[in-house]
């Protein structure tokens, strides 16, 4: 069925594939299908010019499409990376990393290198040297959800 549809549509089948890929990018955004969709559209443009040529078989078309997909994806990623701007909130979605440098007072003692502290409205598991309750500590690193602390 797909082979028959491609034969009936001719070079326009690449345009249809490109539009479907661009529509899929809207449904599942990730800025990846855009480049492959553009490669399909460019392959369609080439197909319009070379459709009657004997050497323009489906094998050559697939090779051109694969080659263009790689080239356009690499070029597109380079263009997008060039326009990336540094965020004014680089640790926005890295909550534990944003706590590094904060100080607090231990409400519970650190025993056997483990304990927990309260920062703002949250209890955080901490790793560090054994310290008694009431000691002022500083967060020096984060590893997943655990914070590493030292006496301040």
Describe the structure.
This protein is of the alpha+beta class. It has 2 domains: 2-82, no CATH class; 95-151, OB fold (Dihydrolipoamide Acetyltransferase, E2P). Helices cover 47% and strands 19% of the residues. It contains 5 helices and 5 strands, in the order αααααβββββ. The chain has helices spanning 2-9, 12-27, 33-50, 58-82, 95-98, and strands at 103-105, 114-119, 122-127, 136-143, 146-151. A 5-stranded mixed sheet has the order 1-4-5-3-2, with no helix packed on it. α2 (12-27) runs antiparallel to α3 (33-50) and α3 crosses α4. The longest helix is centred in the middle third of the chain and has 25 residues, at 58-82. The chain starts with a helix and ends with a strand. 18% of the residues are buried. The model has no long low-confidence stretch (mean pLDDT 86).
Tell me the strand percentage band. 15-25%
Helix content: 40-55%
Q: What best-fitting shape do the alpha-carbon axes yield? A: rod-shaped
Q: Can you tell me the number of structural domains?
A: 2
Unreliable stretches (pLDDT < 50, length at least 5) are none
The H-and-E topology, N to C, reads as HHHHHEEEEE
SS class? alpha+beta
User: What Rg is obtained from the alpha carbons, in whole angstroms?
Assistant: 28 Å
Mean pLDDT: 86
Strand order of the largest sheet: 1-4-5-3-2
Q: How would you characterize the largest beta sheet?
A: 5 strands, mixed
End-to-end distance:
71 Å
User: Total helix count?
Assistant: 5
Q: Compute the number of strand runs.
A: 5
């Amino acid at each position: 069925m797909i082979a028959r549809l491609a034969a009936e549509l001719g070079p326009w089948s690449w345009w249809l594939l490109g539009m479907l890929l661009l529509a899929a990018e809207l449904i599942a955004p990730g800025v990846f299908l855009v480049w492959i969709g553009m490669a399909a559209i460019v392959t369609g443009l080439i197909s319009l010019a070379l459709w009657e040529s004997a050497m323009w078989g489906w094998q050559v078309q697939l090779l051109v499409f694969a080659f263009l997909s790689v080239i356009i994806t690499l070029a597109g990623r380079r263009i997008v990376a060039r326009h990336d701007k540094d965020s004014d909130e680089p640790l926005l979605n890295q909550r534990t990393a944003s706590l590094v440098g904060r100080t607090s007072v231990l409400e519970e003692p650190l025993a056997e290198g483990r304990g927990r502290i309260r920062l703002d409205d949250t209890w955080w598991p901490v790793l560090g040297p054994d310290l008694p309750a009431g000691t002022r500590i500083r967060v020096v690193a984060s590893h997943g959800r655990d914070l590493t602390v030292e006496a301040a």
